[in-house]
Amino acid sequence: MTSPNASPNPHVLGQSSIFNPQVINDIHTKAELGRYRMRGFSMFKPIPHWDQLMFMPGTLTRFVIEGYREKCDTKTVLGARFAQKPLELDIPVYITGMSFGALSLEAKMALAKGASMAGTATCSGEGGMIPPERDLSTKWYYQVIQSRYGFNPHHLMLADAIEFFIGQGCKVGLGGHLMGQKVTEQVAEMRSLPAGIDQRSPARHPDWLGPDDLSLKIQEVREATDYQVPIQLKLGAARVYDDVRMAAKCGPDIIYLDGAEGGTGAGPHLATEETGIPLMAAIPEARRALEDVGLADEIDLVVAGGIRNGGDIAKCIALGAKAVAIGHSSLMALNCNKELPGITDYEGTLGVKAGSCYHCHTGRCPVGITTQDPELRKRLDVEQGAERVYNFLHTLTLEVQMLARACGKTDVHSLEPEDLCALTTEAAAMARVPLAGTNYVPGVTEERTLHEIKTLLEKHVANDGGGSRDV
Amino acid sequence: MVAMSTRRSRNDIRGLAEPDVEAPKTARIEGDTAVFDAADLSPRQINLELRRLVYGEQIPEVTIENPGAKHSVAVGILTRCRITIDGSVGYFGATLGDGPEIHITGRVGWSVAENMMSGVTVIDKNAGSLTGAAMRGGDLVIRGHVGARTGIDQKGGTIIVGGNAGALTGFMMQRGRQIICGDAGPGMGDSMYDGAIYVGGAVASLGVDCVEAEMTPEDDELIDRKFRIYGMDRPASFRKFVCGKKLWNYDNLEPSERKLVL
Amino acid sequence: MCGIAGIIHTDGPGDVGAEMTRMLQSMKHRGPDSAGYALYGEPSELLVMRFKLADPNETSDFDFSERLERSRREVESRLSKVGATVDRVQGESAYAYRASFRYEGELKPLADYIENIPGCEVLSLGHSLEIVKDLGDARTVSDSYRLGEFRGTHAIGHVRMATESDVDIAGAHPYWAYPFSDVAVVHNGQLTNYHQWRRRLERHGHRFQSECDSEIIAVYLAERLADGMSLETAMKTSLSDLDGVFTYLVVTEDSLGMAKDEMAAKPLVLHEGDGMVALASEESAIRAVLPQEIDSYDPYESEVLVWSR
Fold first, then answer.
1. Does the predicted interface ipTM exceed a cut of 0.90?
2. What's the pTM?
3. Which segments of chain C have a pLDDT < 50?
4. Which residues in chain C have Cβ-Cβ distances shorter than 8 Å to B104?
5. Would A250 disulfide with which of A27, A53, A215, C82, CB 3.0-4.6 Å?
């Protein structure tokens, strides 16, 4: 495929920014293909993101905690609402659900081991439980997902927490994908499917169709697991205020919100680009919803989607998350998108440079993470991978602590929205924090002012004995 | 260490969560059998009593009286035993089980025997929708009619329906078989991956990628055997429906999506 | 999120108030925020109007009762002005009232005129329909409105878990098909072309008392009934006109109907017995009035059924 001309020729009038060369190529490809285009990875188009928020640490107004050494707790307890055994994590970060099938056995094992080394949890993901992953996990989420691939009540009993997957940020309202290239005999057998099919998972659960049924489904799983472990509902962030209110009333212990920046192992490019809202906008909406239904102190909020560093995590916690889950960045810790000299050849095999790879869905991952190919899988060493995952999780925690200490906190969970300001009005409006250097919060300030005017006016009218005068 | 006792709220808005309940210990135990009355018990109490009897007292045969169409009754039983529920249960009855033989003499609500791994569940009257959802093994027998989406995402085992079935029977079914004696509603077998649906009556319409197949002597032999086991009258003839396999794969792949090894 | 229930006696009046309370109370987990009833008593020559003059969430400051009394007198005076002969107006709760009167004119101008009084909402208007809805569970509402004494032929009811709108009476079902006499609806599900239909019906001159999609169904059906369509036909057209997933119950002066959309994603259990038909989101509600061994089944997709008293 060739790109249309974009030469510096002085006789060229210009080029459409709407029908740019990429768009034209995309149309050409779709005209050949006859279907939506698939890809892995996170969002391509720019959206308001964490980079537009800044911390306002203590200087003289606040006592700062020694940044690199003094006590700053990171212990994170999730799901103490009804569970006899709430999930206790040493750090406020854990590894989100990614299926065996999307990921290789080695990747699942390395993530599990790395998470355990860091004192935190990992999650089964869609394809069912693989015993080596469970063995290596000290804290393990078991997912109740729409497809119920490989779902087994015996495995349910082994869970430290149960996650109902209802939606994901990168493709809200849609089910998962696994292209036939990755549906090996083993993966297919675990999922009770024919090998080699292009698997499109259902978007709805098979045994409940609405929130009334969901609350009964939660009751069922609590009955089956004897109220031992927390129940978490994972939602893709879209109509967050209403969805979280509804979810909260269904009776979970934890609500997990996945922002639109979230990645995927395979999804329609269009769905990844065009569904959901940024996590930065979702967290304040979720907090408001939990407060409005009176469950802000009972239900814990876990968030995920496009998390890259400890700054992102600290900002999530400040806006009201109890814990943050990471997916794609943990794969990067395993070498995703890294050229390994003498081993990988990104450009030669996938046509893109390392750093620009989004080909998880093809099953041809050059570093052995998102593949089932026995040869490619050899490129990921479980022990070394686990070490890097641990290092990354440990660093994230240090970064969160560093920012928390600078803001004068001896516990990372003491971070609050008031510790933040925004660099753009968009970010200020979405995150509901003031624009840097001002006390202006778009929307909130106006509403507050209107309310003040209304109250003043009412007082004025009342004092006037019914408004004998024009106001 | 976060103090959790201070923030634990003991009631959910709907009143469906009952964390702090103990088994009522009201069953009458006689030798290998036990009976208890569920009229005044909550689902949690019913399940705790049932588990106490099955796991704690090792009683192989338990009867639950007056279940009152309650939800989530007899869920997650992972051992061989025989449970009779004398009456009707609500949603999620006899689900997530592996091994038990459960007999419900009344009707059941939605999602009965959901994700059953093995064992037998027999319902004498009608069932609601989502019957046998994501079921993986064992036999699920409904002597009456069933609602919509019977055997949705079914992954194994056999579902037998004495009466009619609603819309989207066998929706996204993956494995196993369904034997419907009466009529089936519109969209039957929609997007099924595999498995077989046998229908004795009329089929309103087939869903996407569901096609009719030839009945083989093995099919007839299997149906005969199942009907003999459950003492049911067999309709004279069945038609068999399977996956057309047109939806198994995308028609085209991009160059980077082509298979490398495997 | 909600639970719905309906009951109709085909062989003469019964204790529909008490029966509906038992049905709704057994489904409290489906909606503990508010409960609502549409009850049909003996048809009368008089028109019965149920209305409220304030919301339970309003703070009752010192002139609250004074203002309510003023508004109540205003209702009576407006009824007289339009030529109605008032039989009686009685308080049913701190803010809800029941008025019975003789009136031959059109209902729409009457309802509009009454609702023009600040804080006033007409909950129902008809010769036998009476809608009662308030915060709390069915038992609480029944006790405060003395519904245990209500005898009649048919009723529908609703328990609500407030989600998309606030916990208030405006968001509670049943919905009276303003301004059509004696038609009311309860609904479980959601309509995904609600705004299209709302704008269309507003262009036809209808107005809505709430932001709730369920109210569309009531007005949609009543408009077709007023055009001369039978209830059953009107309900059948609704199956293709309304998008989304829904199961609804509708009541008119002499009938009770149910409809389920083609996706069949919202539950309903039905028992048809001698002299009585009972329907509800869950079987437990039917068991609450018929504890003996009965047969019940789930109506199928695209099914429309109507029973008459």
1. yes
2. 0.94
3. none
4. none
5. A215
